[in-house]
Amino acid sequence: MTLDRLNAAGEAAFMAAVGDVFEHAPWVAERAFAARPLASVAALHDAMMQAVRTAPREQQLAFLRGHPELAGKVARAGAMTTDSKAEQGGRGLDRLNDADFARFERANAAYAKKFGFPFIACVRLHKSAESILAMFEQRVGNDPETEFAAALTEIGHITRLRLEDRISVA
Which residues are catalytically annotated? Predict the structure, then answer.
């Protein structure tokens, strides 16, 4: 889809093109639809992130909780969104050995217990599962507000890359 076509699209076509970019949160795209026309993919992403940032805290928390654990049971079962499967699979998180899977499982449990939502990282910005685990270990030491902000920042990285994959300017 080109940016010009997206700007000219009706709401249904707009939602079909970008409604699932933000994990299980079509409301983000619904709110960004009103910001059209958008001058760039970056402007589209900014409008979508603005929808997330201005949402009530309870909606933001529900949004964070809608994300899958990294290398969790849902990932191993292959029951994630197409984007999440590709992203986690691209770093081998769907093919971990039992010992590494157990490490992720422990890290996911500790993180969720402390913060009340799953650890969120833009895995495409990492070279390996080990790099992701190192980030886990660093971020679990954050206070809740810092980590809430870090999760939203990571979602920004994830969704920016997803939009760049889907929308061309030509």
Answer: 67
